[in-house]
Amino acid sequence: MKKSRKAMIIRFVLENIFSFGERKEFNTLPNNRLKTLESHKYDVGDFHLLKLSALYGANGAGKSNLFKAMFLLQKLVLDQKIPFPLKESQFKFNKGKDIPQLLAVEFIQEGTPFYYGIELIGERVATEELYISGLGYQKDRLLFDRKTDKNENTTIQYADEFQNDEKFRLLNSILLEEFVEPKQPVLKLLANRDNKFLADVKNAFRWFSETLQIITPSSRPMALAHRIDVDSEFKHYAEDMMCSFNLGIASLTTEKSPIEEFFGKDNENELNELIKRVEESPKKMVGVRIRTGDEINLVKENGEIWAKSLKVGHKGKDGVEVKFDLIDESDGTIRLLDFVPAFKSVISEPKVFMIDEIERSIHPLLIKELVKKFSHDPKTKGQLIFTTHESNLLDQELFRQDEIWFAEKNQDGATDLYSLSDFKEHKTIDIRKGYLNGRYGSIPFLGNFKDLNWHEYVTQQEPTL
What we know:
The protein is of the alpha+beta class and about 475 residues long. It is about 25% helix and about 30% strand. The chain is built from twelve helices and 20 strands. The chain has helices at about 65-80, 160-165, 165-180, 185-190, 200-210, 225-230, 230-245, 260-265, 270-280, 330-350, 365-375, 430-435, and strands at about 10-15, 25, 40-45, 50, 50-55, 100-110, 110-120, 125-130, 140-150, 155-160, 210-215, 250-260, 285-290, 295-300, 305-315, 320-325, 350-355, 385, 405-410, 415-420.
């Protein structure tokens, strides 16, 4: 199979977690009957994947839970421990504590398709498996299959060529005896081994550590000050993008000073702790939040540690430019700054960006233009997947029908996932109008709201302040 795209997501499967009861799947596979927006189909050899997906749903329908589950799967893999939100996160209407929770993802990394799945029972990693996926055309090829029983005994099965190698068998016995823990996944542990048999495992791990990028509603711009300081091309791109939003922004600059000068020497213990964090970080850089709310990048360069902060330039009526701290900017401006590196990456690199509530704090017309820019660009390389309530984006000139997904609670209180392409609508129909009229479900049911008599609960005059 030829491989022209290096890194993408194919599907995400989850079961018995948050609002998902029965097994549900989200995927980026195109519907073959649809012939619109052909440029949205990335060629990955013998099949195609879509570059854009939007997930709609009423408040409480569970659309953000899909992203939350992927975010926690990523943390589970990278941190090698079960994140706190995953504990006690079973679907509440399921009875019994021994029902497994499944998180599984099929993806492509460096041209190789993988399937990685993990099952949790309580805080035990009951099953963890990694395969090179056959994509339905060939047989899947085992890389490892880990089992941990209720007595917390762990075994790992590998492909025959692994298990027949004496040195690898010795390595595996050491890992099982000294490193493998019942509550921890082993993907990162195996990926960090310098062994020829684990090259594919290392490659699969990079999808979680490098390719997958998740932006939550509470995300703040990360490492922008440093990148603008050292990358002139990115600085010009960031300024052009922010200026095009017509927010009154004239420039983006970095203010830089030695760490001792920035924080002062009054609290030597705190200063030493920050220096230690920088020295121990793989990239010699950490982000810290200071009392004003601004994030400062601490970076070691040329043997010295610097504190870098982002400054946003605005021009007044007399043309004089004044520098503002990030904390002085609106929530919408900060949210857009978070998108600057995201869109730079997703248009030029094979990255997977998942953005929860993409329209948060941003004007509807502005977010539509941003999505339109990505939709109509034939040279993009990454995938953009987001949740939204913004009905103005429901436009068949921006999306294929198989790129629009809905989340809706069923009668059992569980989240259901389905695509607009399931409805077989004509390519000229006004899908925004149909959505708002409830044609596809996934909207709030407001039938009883008009009957709410909220004055009934007012028993006395409210106190004045």
